[in-house]
């Protein structure tokens, strides 16, 4: 009824997944600076793509199904990027009179009030 | 097939016994099932996505704790489990292919192989969890870290909270998958599938591969933060 892929394809994909697994372990033991994280994510995305396309037959699915597959990761990207741009830009006070990068740090083990996002509420409450 | 023939003869119209009345053809029914399963997997991606979001933010905030926490995990066990789980994806893909081509015994064999590998993964996970309890690395259960990491004990507890939540939910998905596969194997044993209709095998396959993909991300994110 639907596409039957040759057995060799599944074993080839499995072999590639093993190679990428070895590669990601290998990379973790080498100092790549800020690139360690992107490399690990890049390899994981590549492996996931192989599984989705060939093991999950997305390559042979209808266009509508493929759209759903892409959509799931599109919404995941929205979740991750929009949330991260919010959190990572909170310390960037670039308006006149603001000190760039000052006034914000991640909560330490003993959080102080000045650095928490809730601080702005207190300012507002004090004004009233 | 004898059942199918008898059923078809029982009806005035000779449709396939597994074609439900609200579908025109088996192809249409198969397409609807595939799309519905993927829609479910979209919700699963976002379900795990929230945890990955929390992971990313805390990793940026508490990088030192992430490195220290990650080094407490065993690459040997994690790597072994990665190979086992990707192997189980291969056997699952082969089970679907055997069902597609109508080899009943091969389908059962590959499904049992997949369940065996899944069980192996879970047993290894039990030993990993036990090791964490022994070393007091379980948040809420007398959590302790080495003296060298005393300053980042709090953030390390967050790391281990996420470790247990993410791997725990992943393991729960595997247990559910194991249950699904028990049913599918029983159905295959009963000769319920044919090259015209093997939808449950394929849908279970999609689910199992998804669980594999989650682990493909969990392994480098939890075990391999920084090993230099």
Question: What's this entry about, in short?
Answer:
Chain A is an all-alpha fold and 128 residues long. Chain A has helices at 7-28, 36-55, 63-89, 119-127. Chain A starts with 6 loop residues before the first helix and ends with a helix.
Essential attributes:
heterodimer, A: 128 residues, mainly alpha, 61% helix, 0% strand, disordered C terminus, B: 228 residues, Four Helix Bundle (Hemerythrin (Met), subunit A), 7 helices
Descriptive notes:
The complex is a heterodimer of chains A (128) and B (228). By secondary structure, chain A is mainly alpha-helical. Chain A has one domain (7-101). Chain A is built from 4 helices and no strands. Residues 110-128 of chain A have low confidence and may be disordered. With 228 residues, chain B is mostly helical. In chain B, 76% of the residues lie in helices and 0% in strands. Chain B has helices at residues 2-10, 26-61, 63-71, 75-101, 104-134, 153-189, 199-223. Chain B has a single domain (25-223), classed as Four Helix Bundle (Hemerythrin (Met), subunit A) (Up-down Bundle), CATH 1.20.120.80. Chain B is elongated, with a radius of gyration of 22 Å. At the A-B interface, helix 1, helix 2 and helix 3 of A face helix 2, helix 4, helix 6 and helix 7 of B.
Mean pLDDT of chain B: 89
Helix content of chain B: over 70%
The tally of domains of chain B stands at: 1
Rounded mean pLDDT of chain A is: 79
Domains counted in the coordinates of chain A: how many?
1
| CATH domain class name of chain B | Mainly Alpha
Shape of chain B: elongated
Supply Rg of chain B: 22 Å
Which CATH architecture of chain B would you pick?
Up-down Bundle
Instruction: Classify the oligomer.
Output: heterodimer
CATH superfamily of chain B: Cytochrome c oxidase, subunit III, four-helix bundle
Shape of chain A: flat
Order of helices and strands of chain B: HHHHHHH
Determine the strand fraction of chain A and express it as a percent band: under 5%
